[in-house]
Specification:
With about 500 residues, the protein is of the alpha+beta class. It folds into 2 domains: about 350 residues, Up-down Bundle (Outer membrane efflux proteins (OEP)); about 60 residues, Outer membrane efflux proteins (OEP) (Single Sheet). Helix content is about 55%, strand content about 10%. The protein is built from 9 helices and 4 strands; from the N terminus they run H-H-H-E-E-H-H-H-H-E-E-H-H. It has a 4-stranded antiparallel sheet, with no helix packed on it. The relative contact order is 0.16. One of its GO terms (cellular component) is plasma membrane. This is RND transporter. It is found in: Cell membrane. GO terms for molecular function: efflux transmembrane transporter activity. Keywords: Coiled coil, Lipoprotein, Membrane, Palmitate, Signal, Transmembrane, Transmembrane beta strand.
């Protein structure tokens, strides 16, 4: 058979030129949107001489920053929380969902291939209304030309969503770590406070026994015995309240590490000294731009903002036509035995250009919605930046003022301890009343407990500052904590 000369359709070259021209109009990747916030050069509460600059990356490894508190029990709790905390598991699952959505979005840009097979039986008017069997088998392919960048924009937006979820996972991890450290240090401070109350209770019971002996000897009135018993019972009630509070913190810590509260126990090690007794480690604040670069929640808000900007371009691209190229090839026959014969081959190619003319305002509404989501994302990003600065300034101010408060409180503890010792000696010699001794003991206990609370607030502010700065930093762990607070001083009555 002679070869037939194929004539190339005249419309192909102009169509190719048109496709290249339209591709030049495709939407470009969205740039990082500017933030119209004045960037402070320094933190108001920071000491310039102590600043250090951290690498500006929210994906930077935070390390085991809680090790600066030099507590092996805390190290173990943080490790267990990283493995079992349910908030972390939820954030990881959402990240996996975002990655799957990204893969699904990128699949729309790839060549689509498929196999087809079918069988049908129907009447054919050309055959006198007799039933005709049709068997088909073949393959099909389709590819959408992304002339205006709609598919590329969707892929970039999905990629930014993945990055935002990665940052949120990092943020969740940081929050969980800070909660574990803060709860643990609070529990240890409560153990120290409970020990102070127990020591004071023992001193009050000694005073009660002494008062009862003096009453039996006729030296004091029954009113003094009643006062001593009242003070003992009141302090016992305070000790029980502290025990209840400790149980609640222990249960909260169990939830953070992903374990049942019924099987979780944390021993009281206050008698051997604890991390709550040590001064808080110094934390370098860095520079404000470092905070923006390191905080994962700020990074997540920024990437959500950039994804919203991409989706504005996607919505605007809906006004332009879609061009899809298709091709198919295979076999068709009325008999199964002839289905794969060369003479039964069939093929087809095509191009589909679609452009909605009237959609009732659907595309315009899509653009307006995308722009509104962009405005909302920008507001969230601005708010997250402002919150970041506020949290750092709050913790820096808190640490500065708490250090001054602790120094003043230590002086109060020393004076109250001296007053208790003098009052105990004078009471045994009959020079002062029991009221003066009880008042001195109450004052010492109150000041010692307040000192523990201030020290605990320093530790909590340190944890809060680390969290506000976006994680750990290069620091040398402090030395082992000093000896625990002494019990209330003063000569014990015999």
């Amino acid at each position: 058979m002679p070869t037939q000369q194929t004539t190339r359709p005249a419309w192909r070259v102009p169509a190719l030129v048109l496709a290249l021209a339209l591709a030049g109009c495709a939407t470009q990747p969205a740039e990082q949107p500017p933030l119209d916030l004045p960037m402070p050069a320094t933190f108001k509460e920071a000491e310039t001489a102590r600043w250090t600059v951290a690498p500006p990356a929210d994906t930077q490894a935070r390390g085991d920053w809680w090790q600066v508190f030099a507590d092996p029990v805390l190290d173990d709790l943080a490790r267990r929380a990283g493995e079992r905390n349910t908030d972390l598991q939820l954030a990881a699952a959402r990240l996996a969902q975002a990655r799957a959505l990204l893969k699904n979005t990128e699949a729309d840009r790839a060549l689509q291939l498929g196999l087809e097979a079918g069988a049908s039986r129907q009447t054919d008017a050309g055959q006198g209304g007799r039933p005709v069997t049709s068997l088909t088998a073949g393959a099909g392919a389709s590819y959408e030309l992304d002339l205006f960048g709609r598919l590329a924009g969707a892929s970039r937006a999905a990629g930014l969503d993945v990055q935002a979820r990665e940052a949120l996972l990092q943020s969740t991890r940081l929050v969980v770590q800070a909660d574990v450290v803060g709860t643990y240090l609070g529990l240890r401070a409560l153990d120290t406070e409970r020990r102070l109350v127990r020591d004071t209770l023992q001193a009050l019971r000694d005073t009660q026994r002494l008062t009862e002996r003096r009453h039996d000897a006729g030296d004091v009135a029954e009113l003094d015995v009643a006062r001593a018993k009242t003070e003992v019972a009141s302090t016992e009630a305070e000790a029980i309240a502290l025990d209840r509070r400790r149980a609640e913190l222990e249960h909260a810590l169990a939830t953070l590490v992903g374990e049942p509260a019924s099987s979780f126990t944390l021993a009281d090690v206050s008698d051997r000294g604890a991390a709550s007794d040590a001064p808080p480690p110094p934390v370098p604040a860095g520079v404000p731009s470092t905070v923006l670069a390191r905080r994962p929640d700020v990074a997540a808000a920024l990437r959500t903002l950039m994804a919203a900007q991409e989706r504005v371009g996607i919505a605007k691209a809906a006004w332009f036509p879609d061009l899809t190229l298709t091709a198919s090839g295979g076999y068709a026959s009325s008999e199964l035995s002839d289905l794969f014969q060369w003479s039964a081959r069939a093929w087809g190619v095509g191009a589909l250009l679609s452009l909605p003319i009237f959609d009732g305002g659907r595309r315009d509404a899509g653009v307006r919605r995308a722009e509104a989501e962009l405005d909302a994302a920008l507001a969230v990003y601005r708010q997250q930046v402002l919150v970041a600065f506020r949290e750092v300034e709050d913790q820096l101010a808190g640490l500065r003022l708490l250090a001054q408060q602790f120094e003043a409180q230590q002086r109060a503890v020393e004076a109250a301890t001296r007053a208790t010792g003098l009052s105990g000696s004078r009471y045994r010699n009959g020079l002062v009343s029991q009221l003066e001794l009880l008042d001195a003991q109450r004052s010492e206990l109150r000041n010692r407990r307040q000192a523990v609370l201030v020290r605990s607030a320093q530790q909590q502010s340190t944890v809060g500052l680390i969290r506000a700065l976006g994680g750990g930093w290069d620091a040398t762990p402090p030395a082992a904590p000093q000896a625990a607070h002494r019990p209330p001083q003063g000569e014990q009555p015999s």
